[in-house]
Amino acid sequence: MPDRSDPIEIRLSSDQLRALDAWRVKHRESAATREDAVRHLVQKALSQELQLSLSAGNRPIDEGLRPDQLTSENDD
């Protein structure tokens, strides 16, 4: 089953939009649109946060199973 995505709406100031567009110019291959740029930057920030957490000795958060993954076979 493919990952589900939920649309979100955010407001950015004109300064933030200018900075985002300037970043896109430098990263056209991975960020053709503003939406692509936001996705890329969010993923990068989350990956860096996870790496920092792991390097500090913290274990990744176990989010368990999604409802569609629950079966009698994995019922403990």
Question: What does this entry look like structurally?
Answer:
The protein has 76 residues and is an all-alpha fold. The protein has helices at residues 14-26, 34-55. The longest helix has 22 residues, at 34-55. It is extended and about 50 Å long.
Low-confidence stretches: none
Helix and strand composition category = mainly alpha
Count all strands and give the number: 0
Strand content: under 5%
Terminal CA distance reads 23 Å
Order of H and E elements: HH
| Rg result | 18 Å
Helix content: 40-55%
Instruction: List the quaternary state of the chains.
Output: single chain
Tally of contiguous helical segments: 2
- Tell the overall outline: extended
Give the mean pLDDT. 82
Give a short summary of the structure.
By secondary structure, the protein is mainly alpha-helical. The protein has helices spanning 14-26, 34-55.
